[in-house]
């Protein structure tokens, strides 16, 4: 379907009509504005500062004053009070606003940087004082973070220590609206939780995990429920454990079970999983709320286990179709009819239990038709479905506000025509739903739906699919898109959001988007990225800044409809019809690689610099793989056996092993880190094996038979050598055999053979190191000296 665009936005930033929003919506915004008390938020943000800065935090005064915002979006103030004791005072309208003000000071006046790949916190001594007060107001009420899929692609194996770091980063980034989804399966099935410090602690692995079970929790915080009031939705409804086990997936695939896409695959969930996730959730919601964040809790979307039909044989439920490339063995979940009484019974019962367990901020998430075609396109039916979902929320919480991902509208545009979109959205009173315009940087939906037909929306940057590695960005789109959306006629935009499917990649893009969440107009990107490089590495360096400006104009500036799903031949099952097209000039990456290496003598002690050197070298190697693939394909098609042997030999026996060595030199690029974090969640050897199989399958086959093969591909030390390189070795061997024998190459036969290699990797039981080895600088330099001249020649020559 052609994308229909609205009128051109006004040219001046910040100009345009004031959005006309429904009165109920304004009331709802006010209802969700208040979180923890001021004193509790102040203490939480001060504790964050102590974790971040240690004793130096004493020179920063932090306070929370909701009156600063006067009921509107967040505001922070920075100033230097008279006297010698305090260098800077930060006041925010919430804990999050104060934390964002603190990071503004650290970033812009102390030259510091914080990201997933590390922190650069070399503070000046003494801390600088401000010459004049700074006051910043967020242009929208919400700065949202998290994609439902990230719960599996990135968060699946996190303990409390990792969650604590993430929530600190969220607060410093100004995030004030985010899901808290852990532990919901424990609510769905019967879980008897003991009193704090009871028998639940037995078998829980690390000290961090034991803390997640036993506290500490502050007075008034969400905590373990009374054991006489178990959360037992499915068991209360009459389902047996076998029926529940056949419904829940394994931990690495729960995101798609929660959205009604997948059931049973890689499960069942062990009892210990429920306990650990439940108590982890207590700490997550307590910390988020203490900082002034609004937590988004799960609600009922209408999907039910097949066992419901046994218990209630007259219930009106219909199987949805299969999802993606899964058949009904693991897909085709039942959806209740919106007018069946059990829809409200189950939905309200579940949400009441969720609220009983975790408290509430009155915002709930539910996605009924994620990548699933509804049973009918009749607008009346679609309106009944959304109305039923919302009524099940208000049955438990009259103040409920529904937060819905808008992915479905752009994913299936042939189905979701204006009448269908309007019907689904208008099944909920205006202002009682917020839609995440999930892929707004490339495929905005608000433009052809008249701002979601009056429902509020958040302009989101999706950016990443599957948690893939690969340098990528749409910086011009995100630098201008949110401002254009605010100026859109009758805009109902209420904030910006970060919604990557996987995190811990492309730090620069997320730093930029977080800063834009507090800006009133676009940034000068070349100047911004130059300052970014200086802050990130803790020193000004002309070569490093030049490298970043090259990356900014190339890999980070995809224009048009851009989908960051890494399809490099490196991480895809080999064939003779692979896509090697790039959206940028490959020579810019090679030159950035050269410049970073030249800065190594000065910046080599910076952890962030070493991370970036690995990442840029990895990107250059990925481009080289494409070049050698093209040489292999050309040699085979020309029946040039010597050239095939040469190109294939270099790829399989030199380039890929050296790339694996490079990745193995950095802790954040290790397969072992992913696998060992999965095993660490286990309380028995059997659980450890199950969790490791979950983790291996997700990044490779994604299903029992390669159903979504390589969707969540990663470039990790161990995975490149034992998975990707083995596939390429087999491919080259089969092509050589084809030329030698004169028999044609058959892709189907190769796929059958390589599937055994892929499946063998999942079950090889090899333990991979979680500690890096090797000298990053030396390995990168060795690769550069060997491949840079030929790489540059290939990039200048263009595609074959």
From TrEMBL:
Gene3D superfamilies cross-referenced by the UniProt entry: Chitobiase/beta-hexosaminidase domain 2-like, Glycosidases, N-acetyl-b-d-glucoasminidase
InterPro entries, sorted: Hex-like_dom2, NAGLU, NAGLU_C, NAGLU_N, NAGLU_tim-barrel
Residue span, Alpha-N-acetylglucosaminidase tim-barrel domain: 143-191, 231-520
The Alpha-N-acetylglucosaminidase N-terminal domain, residue ranges: 43-128
Residues in Alpha-N-acetylglucosaminidase C-terminal domain copies: 528-786
Keyword annotations from UniProtKB, A to Z: Hydrolase, Signal
Keyword Signal in annotation: yes
Superkingdom: Eukaryota
Gene Ontology molecular function terms on file: hydrolase activity
Leader peptide range in chain numbering: 1-36
Keyword Hydrolase attached: yes
Protein name: Alpha-N-acetylglucosaminidase
Source organism: Chloebia gouldiae
